[in-house]
Amino acid sequence: MSVEMVELSVKAAEPLRPAGNLQQNRVFLDFFWDLAKPDQEVRLKAVENLIQYLKTNNKEDELEYTFKRLVDGLAHTRETARPGFSLALGQVLSAFEDVSLQSILNRIKEKHNLQGAKKKFSRNAMFGNVFGVLALHQSNRLSKEPQVVLGCVQLLQSLSQHKQHLKDLPTKTMMDILAEVPEEVFEEVLMGALQTDLESAFRTPEQLQLLLVALQRFPQTLKPKKLKKLLGSSTIINADNIPKITEVLKTAAHAVKKERILPAVVLDLLKLSLKEDSFELFWNKAITDGMLKEQPGPTQ
């Protein structure tokens, strides 16, 4: 074989040399495809394999690419895909604790900025923000970064106005966050941000339940004196508040009428009535003479 032919054959073979790397990258990229699949088992396996891959290879560029793809995927056009990307992001953040949550929150807000989104993509952007906060919550690191907790709550508050798309998802996510943070973080960081929501507890079932969750979790902060300042009374269930509570319960019952279930806020109020020694008042006035009389369907 001539030198020219050898050189030609070598040159022809050169593009095949990176095949191993390409194959490896293909495996890496396939994780993100699997995260978007409708089968939950496939998504869970993809999360597990992705984290194992990242830990084994320990490549900074691949970790950076992972965060980009996962943050993008939070607003996936296919609804079943969003939870997969959210779960993956939370688990990756849990596995790589040197990555600050603040940096990821900033990415989420920048990528899914509602003001910059086109109208037809605004709904996806809303969900991108919510699933982003859920991911930060699922990292189990929120309580270590109080300012990120505050940022998450403020973002959820801004999304609460979009009920036609998100329903009560932002408020429920806030409740999940409250269930995780220690009382000192609530008192020092969140109390001021949530004050308006807590003062408006009797406006909607979601806001009332937010107050009840906060009351259960942070009794030392929300003492009777503080409640009086927020609501005008040192207790929740009393004769003055019963009419407002009744209206909220009717709204809650109407919302779950098709499911024919007891609204969650009712159970929380029942527990509180026992604690405040106002069970008889609550049951007779708010339930029997109020919600049950006009809304028999959901509670039977």
TrEMBL record:
Keywords: Nucleus. The keyword Nucleus applies. GO terms for cellular component: nucleolus. InterPro entries: ARM-type_fold, DNA_pol_V/MYBBP1A. It is found in: Nucleus. One of its GO terms (molecular function) is RNA binding. Coiled coil: none annotated. Its main location: nucleus. Belongs to the MYBBP1A family. This is TOG domain-containing protein.
